Amino acid sequence: MGVEERYKKVAAEVAEVCRAAGRDPREVRVVAVSKTVGPEAVGEALVAGAHDFGENRPEGLVQKAAVYPQATWHFIGNIQSRRIPDIVGSAALIHSLFEERHARKIDEAARAAGKIQDVLLEVNVSGEASKSGRTPADVRELLEVCTALPNVRVRGLMTMAPRGDAATARETFEGLARLRDELRAGLDAEQAAAFDGLSMGMSEDWREAVAAGATIVRIGRAVFDDAFEK
């Protein structure tokens, strides 16, 4: 099965799981995580109907966005200060913001680029030491900083769940959804309208994420790796 077939299969499964959960499939965006493949595979996914792609390295983001400017590009990796102008230049949405200093540099780069940069705040809901992100208790502080920056727009939250346990993943995702709703209640009407995103769920656990309210699922191996079976 090639990339086209796998993407179509994933998209159909996401729609099916949405309907089973009583949700409109249009509420959930599938980001095809293309970090392990070259531009050719991205082209195959585009033919299959993919619109959104995720990269975790600035060089991959810049290269592939230049080849396929018609796609919507997401930055999902670790943010390096010196590469923020490159990220802002190519990414429609940055998923992995959790440091105030990066928020301020994103604001500067977005102002220089003449754009409003959409971001998600990364939250370490599970508390795993191996995962980055703000704790649920202190993400509000970063949200307050970001809402005061004129060229940054916070679109919601992102998290990763512990691997290997569907029940724990579901609990993690439900925790992020509750946190999003709590934070949203403290925003003004315009900010609250924008603050609706939940980026959560990957190839192994996106089903649990959709059931918990994900608006974005980040699926790489199930689309691009022919060795992945689920």
Automatic annotation (TrEMBL):
Domain of life per record: Bacteria
Keywords, alphabetical: Pyridoxal phosphate
N6-(pyridoxal phosphate)lysine PTM positions: 35
Domain spans labelled Alanine racemase N-terminal: 16-224
Role: Pyridoxal 5'-phosphate (PLP)-binding protein, which is involved in PLP homeostasis.
NCBIfam families according to UniProt: YggS family pyridoxal phosphate-dependent enzyme (TIGR00044)
Membership in a protein family: Belongs to the pyridoxal phosphate-binding protein YggS/PROSC family.
Name of the featured protein: Pyridoxal phosphate homeostasis protein
Organism: Gordonibacter faecis
Top-level taxonomy: Bacteria, Bacillati, Actinomycetota, Coriobacteriia, Eggerthellales
